[in-house]
Every structure is written in structure tokens, then in C-alpha cells.
């Protein structure tokens, strides 16, 4: 009996040990798959095409065991790294060509995720889901007619009655922002249906109320740059893209290299998708005005800055905003990621970065993050790129100062706070002599008031003698008074106070 029990105990131990070892091995494989999917598209010695082909073969071999895990990772990557949307769409396209059933399961999974994001009010995630679904048309995973039906359903939500305008705006914005990825494919296969969709959007935009627009403008004047409402600006960019036959020069399209493989694959159709109705507790993204500070004449050296109505400007700015959102809690990493922008050889990157950061800092009614967040990122950018970034930032400061007469009061205060903080990190060096003419203006004019308030903030960050020494004599009237303690018992008539 005892001998048998001993054998049973040993068998039980072996059984548990084998199970643990199997779980451990499975976890290792899952972690390896996740790492491979996450890192695809990063710099490597092999080409992107060969990496995608190899990864597709690895994933196909593991589909039977890790199907759910692969579905989840691919979907999360497409949402959390929207700049790699086309890479993951190509990967799904290759898997669909090898395994049609998996392609169908993936379509169901991404649609389910899209619906959940709409239901829970995760509007950015829902928009990236829609973008990914659209890009699957380019990879022959989805039929173009099926996608157009979905886009028409979403645009119909913009004509609902009794719902907030921000809800209607979001659905139109979500549809318009997918067209740079899939517009060419829809134009070639379903031109009349695409035209009908665009006409419906244009009718909505023409009758849409824009009472919020003046309150969100950084400057009260539209010279030299027009401050456009965000939907109007995107619509102008889409119209320009349409005139250019839906061709742009910014989005990487790795699936073109696999066209012969992908075009042989069977396509899926989307199930019927009805967005959830509006609830009173729902919150939607707020409207904004597109901030413009530079044009191509401001950056004469190097690559040309894309025009305000070119779709490339929208794509670049959205990508930079996404980097800020992902890394804003770690200023050093954020600055490094901004400077590692993948298309920096094609654009004047420093100008684009500075404009996007000031756009967030001056966003009305409130910036997305703490004001000091943007100031600290700009300081790190100057440290990492000392040959160009400080000059671009100085040029931006001059432009803002020249236009300060018509600047919104809240933005004026943020400009004062940022500039004083920035000076305090660079030994208070500035070419104050260039602003000496301000002393002849009325003391309450925005320009002398700006200098006075900046010096007042600098006083809080240093001491009076330092502020006095850094300011030229001509601007001495704007230097704040030296703060002195007031001890009432040492003043004239103090004896009466003691009595």
C-alpha cells in the first residue's frame, strides 16, 4: 500500500510538473509572437517585405494553438500604433491569402472591437479601428462595396435629429480621416458611390453651425494665416487630394509589393454595423481650430513645408500629435521620438514639431496636458538638436510676439508663462534689443505688457539683480520693482503703533 501510494504521489508530481512546463513553454511562445508582431516595421538588416513574409509564415504555423492571442495582438497594435496601420493590414492580408477562415475571424474581431469602442466612448480607438478596416480593402481582405456601405451608415449618423453637434461632427471626421488611406481604391472600383458619399458630407458641412469657431481662435485676425475650423480644413485637404486623383506621398504602402499574392485571395464582407444611439452621459471630442504659424516662406532651407490644404500636412500633424499623446509623460523619450520621425528627410521637421507643440499649448479652452509639459519637451528638443531647434524656436517666438496684438488673452498668459520658463533654463539669454521699440508704445499695449509680465515671471524664477542685468537700459521702465520687505514698526510714526 505504502509503495503504491509513493508511486501515485510521484506520478501526481510529474503530472503537475509537466503541466507547469507546458504552460511555461506556451507563455514563452506567446511572448515571442507578441514581440515579433510589435517590432515588425522597425529598423532591421532585412527588408520590410521579407520580414512581413517571414512573420506571416510563423503566425500561420501557430494559428491552431494561439489564434485568439494573435487576433488580439494584431488588433491592439493597429489601434495603439496607428502609424503602422498599413504594415499590420498587409500582415493580415498575407494571412488571409494563406488561411481564408482566419481572415474571416479577424474581420469579425476587428468589427466587434470597433463596436465596443463606439459603445464605451473610446473615440480615438474607434477611429483607428475604422482606418484599419478601411486599409483591409487595399489588401484585398474586404470588398470595397462592403466598406462603402459602412461609411454611408456612419455619415447617416451625422443627419440624426436631437443629438449634440459634436456627435455628428465626429462621424463625419472619422469618415473623412480614413479617405487618405483608401480613397484611391474606392475611386478606382466604386467611383459613383464614393462621389455620392462626398456630396452627402459636403451638404452636411455647408449647413453645419460654427458658432464655436470665434471662441476657439488663437488670434482674432486671420492674417497672415487663416485659422480654419478643423472639419473645414480637413474637407479642403480631402478636396485637394481628390483633385490629385487620390495620390499622396506620405503613407507607406507595403502591400503593393505583395499585390500578386493578395489579389488572388478571396474577400470578405462586413456584417451590418449600426452605431449605438446617443446617451445623455456620452462625451465626445470637442471641436478645435487648426493652428498655423509657419508657411513655406518661413523655412527657406531644406525640404519644403507642405501647403496648409495638402493632405500631407494633416497626416504629418496627426502623427506628431500621436507621438505627444503616447510619450508626453516622459519628456526625454518624447523629444527623441519626435526627432526620429520616419519621414524627416521629406519635411522641415523642426518647424512641424514646433508648430504642433504650440498648437497644443494654445489649444482653447484648455490645453490637453499641463503647460509645463510642453515647455519641458521643447527644452529637451533644444538639447537633442542644438544646431537647429533653438533657432526655429527663436523664430517662432518672434512670430508670436509680432502677432501678439490680436492674441487671445488666455493664450497670451500661456505664452508669458512658457517664455519665462524657457529663458530660465537657458541663462535668460535673449536679444531684448530687438524689442526696444515697444517702450514707445502705450504701457497697456500688448507688446510692452508682454515684456513686463515675462520679466515679472523671471523675477519669481531668479532674483531682481539678475533680471535687471539681463535687460537693456532702454527697457528699464518695464523691469519690475525690487521686492523689499515692509516692517511697519521701523517706519515713520512707528511709535504711535506701539502705543
UniProtKB/TrEMBL annotation:
<dbReference type="GO" id="GO:0006406">
    <property type="term" value="P:mRNA export from nucleus"/>
</dbReference>
<feature type="region of interest" description="Disordered">
    <location>
        <begin position="1"/>
        <end position="21"/>
    </location>
</feature>
<dbReference type="GO" id="GO:0000339">
    <property type="term" value="F:RNA cap binding"/>
</dbReference>
<dbReference type="GO" id="GO:0005846">
    <property type="term" value="C:nuclear cap binding complex"/>
</dbReference>
<comment type="similarity">
    <text>Belongs to the NCBP1 family.</text>
</comment>
<dbReference type="GO" id="GO:0031053">
    <property type="term" value="P:primary miRNA processing"/>
</dbReference>
<dbReference type="GO" id="GO:0003729">
    <property type="term" value="F:mRNA binding"/>
</dbReference>
<comment type="subunit">
    <text>Component of the nuclear cap-binding complex (CBC), a heterodimer composed of Cbp80 and Cbp20 that interacts with m7GpppG-capped RNA.</text>
</comment>
<dbReference type="GO" id="GO:0005634">
    <property type="term" value="C:nucleus"/>
</dbReference>
<dbReference type="GO" id="GO:0006370">
    <property type="term" value="P:7-methylguanosine mRNA capping"/>
</dbReference>
<dbReference type="GO" id="GO:0008380">
    <property type="term" value="P:RNA splicing"/>
</dbReference>
<dbReference type="InterPro" id="IPR015172">
    <property type="entry name" value="MIF4G-like_typ-1"/>
</dbReference>
<keyword id="KW-0539">Nucleus</keyword>
<feature type="domain" description="MIF4G">
    <location>
        <begin position="30"/>
        <end position="242"/>
    </location>
</feature>
<protein>
    <recommendedName>
        <fullName>Nuclear cap-binding protein subunit 1</fullName>
    </recommendedName>
</protein>
<keyword id="KW-0508">mRNA splicing</keyword>
<dbReference type="InterPro" id="IPR003890">
    <property type="entry name" value="MIF4G-like_typ-3"/>
</dbReference>
<keyword id="KW-0507">mRNA processing</keyword>
<dbReference type="GO" id="GO:0000184">
    <property type="term" value="P:nuclear-transcribed mRNA catabolic process, nonsense-mediated decay"/>
</dbReference>
<dbReference type="InterPro" id="IPR027159">
    <property type="entry name" value="CBP80"/>
</dbReference>
<keyword id="KW-0943">RNA-mediated gene silencing</keyword>
<keyword id="KW-0506">mRNA capping</keyword>
<dbReference type="Pfam" id="PF09088">
    <property type="entry name" value="MIF4G_like"/>
</dbReference>
<dbReference type="Pfam" id="PF02854">
    <property type="entry name" value="MIF4G"/>
</dbReference>
Amino acid at each position: 500500500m505504502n509503495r503504491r501510494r509513493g508511486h501515485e504521489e510521484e506520478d501526481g508530481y510529474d503530472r503537475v510538473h509537466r503541466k507547469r512546463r507546458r504552460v511555461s513553454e506556451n507563455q514563452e511562445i506567446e511572448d515571442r509572437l507578441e514581440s515579433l508582431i510589435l517590432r515588425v516595421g522597425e529598423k532591421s538588416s532585412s527588408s520590410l517585405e521579407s520580414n512581413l513574409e517571414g512573420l506571416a509564415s510563423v503566425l500561420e504555423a501557430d494559428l491552431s494553438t494561439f489564434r485568439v492571442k494573435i487576433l488580439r495582438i494584431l488588433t491592439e497594435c493597429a489601434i495603439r500604433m496607428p502609424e503602422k496601420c498599413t504594415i499590420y493590414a498587409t500582415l493580415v492580408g498575407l494571412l488571409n491569402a494563406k488561411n481564408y477562415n482566419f481572415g474571416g475571424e479577424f474581420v469579425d474581431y476587428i468589427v466587434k472591437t470597433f463596436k465596443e469602442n463606439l459603445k464605451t466612448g473610446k473615440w480615438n480607438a474607434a477611429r483607428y479601428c475604422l482606418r484599419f478596416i478601411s486599409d483591409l480593402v487595399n489588401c484585398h481582405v474586404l470588398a470595397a462595396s462592403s466598406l462603402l456601405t459602412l461609411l454611408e451608415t456612419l455619415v447617416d449618423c451625422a443627419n440624426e435629429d436631437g443629438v449634440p453637434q459634436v456627435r455628428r461632427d465626429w462621424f463625419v471626421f472619422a469618415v473623412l480621416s480614413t479617405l487618405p488611406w483608401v480613397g484611391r481604391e474606392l475611386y478606382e472600383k466604386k467611383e459613383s458611390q464614393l462621389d455620392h458619399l462626398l456630396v452627402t458630407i459636403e451638404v452636411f458641412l455647408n449647413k453645419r453651425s460654427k458658432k464655436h469657431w470665434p471662441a476657439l481662435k488663437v488670434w482674432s485676425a486671420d492674417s497672415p494665416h487663416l485659422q480654419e475650423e478643423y472639419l473645414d480644413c480637413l474637407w479642403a485637404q480631402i478636396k485637394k487630394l481628390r483633385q490629385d486623383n487620390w495620390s499622396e506621398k506620405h503613407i507607406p504602402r507595403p502591400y503593393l509589393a505583395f499585390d500578386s499574392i493578395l489579389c488572388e485571395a478571396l474577400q470578405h464582407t462586413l456584417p451590418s454595423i449600426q452605431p449605438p444611439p446617443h446617451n445623455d452621459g456620452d462625451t465626445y471630442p470637442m471641436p478645435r481650430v487648426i493652428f498655423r504659424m509657419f508657411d513655406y516662406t518661413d523655412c527657406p532651407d531644406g525640404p519644403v513645408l507642405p501647403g496648409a490644404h495638402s493632405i500631407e500636412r494633416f497626416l504629418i500633424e496627426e502623427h506628431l500629435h500621436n507621438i505627444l499623446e503616447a510619450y508626453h509623460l516622459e519628456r526625454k523619450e518624447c523629444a527623441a521620438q519626435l526627432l526620429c520621425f520616419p519621414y524627416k528627410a521629406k519635411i522641415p521637421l523642426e518647424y512641424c514639431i514646433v508648430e504642433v507643440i504650440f498648437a497644443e499649448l494654445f489649444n482653447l479652452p484648455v490645453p490637453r496636458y499641463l503647460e509645463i509639459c510642453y515647455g519641458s519637451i521643447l527644452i529637451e528638443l533644444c538639447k537633442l538638436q542644438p544646431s537647429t531647434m533653438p533657432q526655429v524656436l527663436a523664430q517662432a517666438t518672434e512670430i508670436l510676439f509680432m502677432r501678439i496684438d490680436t492674441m487671445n488673452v488666455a493664450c497670451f498668459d500661456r505664452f508669458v508663462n512658457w517664455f519665462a520658463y524657457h529663458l530660465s533654463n537657458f541663462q535668460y539669454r535673449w536679444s531684448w534689443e530687438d524689442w526696444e521699440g515697444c517702450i514707445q508704445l502705450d504701457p497697456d499695449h500688448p507688446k510692452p505688457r508682454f515684456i513686463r509680465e515675462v520679466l515679472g515671471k523671471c523675477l519669481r524664477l531668479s532674483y531682481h539683480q539678475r533680471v535687471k542685468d539681463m535687460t537693456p537700459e532702454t527697457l528699464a521702465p518695464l523691469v519690475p520693482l525690487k521686492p523689499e520687505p515692509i516692517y511697519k514698526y521701523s517706519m515713520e510714526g512707528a511709535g504711535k503703533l506701539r502705543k
